Amino acid sequence: MNSEQAAATSATGREPGLQLSCGYGTDRGLRRELNEDSFIASDPVFAVADGMGGHEAGEIASGICVRTLAGMPQLATGARTATAAVVQQYLVSADERIRTATGSRAGTTLAGVVLVEQMGVPYWLVVNIGDSRTYRLSQGEFVQVSVDHSEVQELVDAGEITKEQAAVHPRRHVVTRALGTGDETEADYWLLPVEEGDRIMVCSDGLNAELTDDHMFRILSTVGHPQDAVDALIQAALRSGGRDNVTVIVVDAKNVMNDAGTDTAPRPAVGAEDEDTLPRAQVDTTEVLDSTEVDTEELPEAPGMVQPADAPGSAEQAAADAAEPLQDPATDSEGRHDGLK
Ligand code: MG
Fold first, then answer.
1. 96 and 90 in contact (C-beta within 8 Å)?
2. How many CB atoms lie within 10 A of CB 281?
C-alpha cells in the first residue's frame, strides 16, 4: 500500500462564524507507477489537479497548477474575498507556466471550491476545468456540481449514450479542456450558498471511475469525520481496482448561520411575511447568484506571479505529488494521457 493520506484533519474555520473542517489524501493507486495528481487544501482553497502527460510531465503540470493557486493572497490572510475573476487570473497564469515548463506536452485538470463571501453571506465558488469533480452533500442530497469537460460528457449531453455507458466507454479518459495544453483553457464557475452541514467532496477521476455515486454517497453520509471519510473513499477505490491515481478532499461547513454576523438579517423564522425583513440587496444577491454560472468573459490583467513560498501556511497543506522515482510511463497506457482533442 502506498497511501499518503494526511494524518490529521485541519480545523480551518475562524471564530465565531463559519467553521470549516477538512480531510484530504492521495494515493498512487495499484496500477500507475507515478502519482500525477496534486492538491491544495488550505482555507479558503480546496482543489484537486490531475496531471496528464508522458514521463514526469503530468505531475509537473498538476504541481505547477496547485502551487500557482497557493500564491493567492487569500491563503495567507484567510480572507474570503476571492472571486471567479481572481481565480481565473491564477488559472491563466498556471496555464502559461505549464506551457513554458513542458512545451505544451502536458496538461492538468483543476476542480474544487473556494470559500468566498458576498455581502457577508458565505458561498462555495466551484471551479472546474477537465474531468476532476466537485460533489456536494447538502440537506441529505448528494449532487455532482461540476460538469466534466470530456468527450463522453459531450456524448451524454447529446443524448447519444447514458451516464452508465460513459463510465465504461473506451474514450472516457479523453478530456476536452485542460490547463497547459489544448486550445480551450477557460474554467467553469458556479456560486452556491453555503448551507448548514454542507459536505463538499473534491476528487480526481481515480475515485469516481472506481466507485458509483451511490457508493460515494453511502460513505459520505455515514462517516462523520472528514478525514475518516477521505480514508474510507480512497480505500474503497483501491479495493475496486485502484487503476488510477486517486485524490480526495472532504470539507465540512458548520455554524453557517452565525457567519453573516449581526449586520445582516437572520433567516426567516416562520411565515412568509418575514421575508420582507430581509434587506433587499441580500435577497437579490441570493437569487441572482444561487447556482448560476459566473461570467468570466472580461477579466482584468493577470497579476504578477506570486511564489508559493510567499504564502504562509501553504507549504504544509498544499501537498503536491509524492516524490516517487521516475518510472516507465508505459503503465499509463489506459488512455488517460493520450490526450486532448
Ligand atoms: Mg486521473
1. no
2. 10
Task: Give yes or no for a contact between 27 and 42, defined as CB atoms under 8 angstroms apart.
Answer: no
Report how far residue 29's alpha carbon sits from residue 261's, in angstroms, rounded to the nearest whole number. 44
Ligand 1 centroid from CA 211, angstroms: 13
Q: Cα of 245 to ligand 1 centre, how many Å?
A: 6
Contact criterion met (CB below 8 Å) for 247 and 37: yes
Task: Give 271-320 pLDDT, tens digit per residue.
Answer: 333 333 333 333 333 323 333 333 333 323 333 222 222 233 333 333 33
Residues in Cβ contact with 51 at an 8 Å cutoff, skipping those fewer than 6 apart = 36, 37, 38, 57, 58, 59, 60, 61, 62, 63, 106, 107, 108, 321
Query: What are the angstrom distances between the C-alpha of 178 and each of 96, 150, 300, 337?
Result: 12, 10, 21, 12
For residue 61, report the distance from its CA to the centre of ligand 1, in Å. Answer: 13
Q: Give the CATH number of domain 10-265+274-297+309-320.
A: 3.60.40.10
